[in-house]
Specification:
Blueprint lengths: L1 H9 L12 E2 L6 E6 L9 H8 L2 H4 L2 E6 L6 H7 L5 E5 H9 L4 E6 L6 E6 L14 E4 L5 H11 L8 E4 L4 H6 L5 E5 L3 H5 L5 E5 L11 E6 H6 L1 H20 L1 H9 L7 H15 L11 H13 L22
Parallel strand pairs: 2-3, 2-4, 7-8, 7-9
Antiparallel strand pairs: 1-3, 4-11, 5-11, 6-9, 6-10
Helix pairs in contact: 2-10, 2-11, 10-11, 11-12
Length: 327
């Protein structure tokens, strides 16, 4: 487990080189499509690498290149400059980009629920958001991290101004394990599992303290993509859905394929992360990628109330399930 932890913390600055290299379809006769992830390749991306390796993209006439970003802000920046056709990013980042005037459209969710949570240790004595009064919380610098714990504290009857925050980038788990901080904002499907190599984590999840159910990571493109190339969008999403179905029914092969795209990681290391996400990849949705648009609307309204953004338009103007395959 520590090998994977080290990889994710140390290799983040690489982009299209080493463990951050791009992965491209062998068949270059199809329509070129550039796809930038939200992070280094990991279990949340299983469907996309399966679609690539099993030829589902090429069968749909697409020559897809998958790229890893240097940071969480790279995806939106590269999409804004026309360097990719599709991107992945946290929901809050894409909604904020739309509020700031970027013509982005959310076309699929990657998981069905929030993944962000507050992670602490058994020894801290913290069991709920209120307990963070007077404590030091580490954040990665992602927009919304501090807002998440502040809102959870408010919903738990606490004063968030009594908590202290420090931006420590992606060096979250080592700092938490060393006792330098009392808690971190991370994914229950990623950082909480990584911490298990040090001890038993305490995970406080967003939906238990007043947050709506929404997809944590979303797939998006620009308005001109859905307007001018709707069939490409449909083919891309259909291949992703096939990749997810195949991954769920061929887990060992899917993780072996995914591991081949990440230097120094084997399938066994990816298994606990994939298994944690298995219930929320599709869940009770009709197809992989399907979104609860009402939940996204509630989340966007909450973000506005917290001063994180000023959307000024209903989410139905830029969030759609229209291009997903029917089942």
């Amino acid at each position: 487990m520590k090998t994977l932890k080290t990889l994710f913390l140390c290799c983040l600055p690489l982009f299209m080189a080493g463990c951050g290299k791009s992965a491209a379809a062998d068949d270059k006769g199809g329509q070129p499509v550039r796809f930038i992830l939200d992070y280094l390749p990991n279990a949340i991306h299983a469907a996309f690498y399966a679609a690539l390796d099993q030829g589902f993209y090429s069968e749909n006439g697409l020559a897809v290149s998958i790229m890893a970003p240097t940071s969480t802000t790279d995806t939106l920046r590269l999409m804004a400059s026309g360097k990719a056709e599709f991107g992945l990013a946290p929901l809050i980042d894409v909604v904020k980009a739309r509020a700031d005037g970027e013509p982005v459209v959310i076309i699929a969710g990657v998981v069905r629920t929030p993944l962000a949570s507050v992670i602490t240790t058994k020894g801290s004595g913290i069991t709920r958001p209120k307990d963070f009064e007077g404590r030091l919380i580490g954040t990665s610098g992602i927009p919304g991290d501090e807002i998440i714990i502040r809102s959870m504290m408010i919903n738990d009857g606490a004063d968030p101004n009594k908590a202290r925050f420090i931006n420590i980038g992606y060096n979250l788990i080592p700092n938490l394990a060393a006792g330098r901080i009392d808690g971190v904002i991370g994914f229950w499907s990623q950082e909480a599992i990584q911490f298990a190599s040090y001890g038993e984590p305490v995970v406080i999840r967003m939906e238990d303290y007043g947050f709506p159910v929404f997809p944590e990571i979303v797939l998006f493109c620009r308005e001109e993509m859905v307007r001018e190339h709707p069939e490409t969008v449909r083919k891309f999403l259909e291949a992703n859905a096939r990749g997810m179905d195949w991954s769920l029914s061929h887990e060992d092969a899917a993780l072996a394929g995914l591991a081949s795209h990440v230097e120094g990681v084997d399938a066994a290391e990816l298994t606990p992360f994939f298994d944690a996400l298995r219930p929320v990849y599709v869940g009770d949705a009709p197809v992989y990628g399907f979104m609860n648009i009402e939940g996204i609307g509630t989340y966007a309204k909450w973000a506005g109330q917290m001063g994180l953004l000023n959307l000024g338009t209903p989410v139905s103007d830029f969030v759609t399930n229209e291009y997903l395959p029917s089942r």
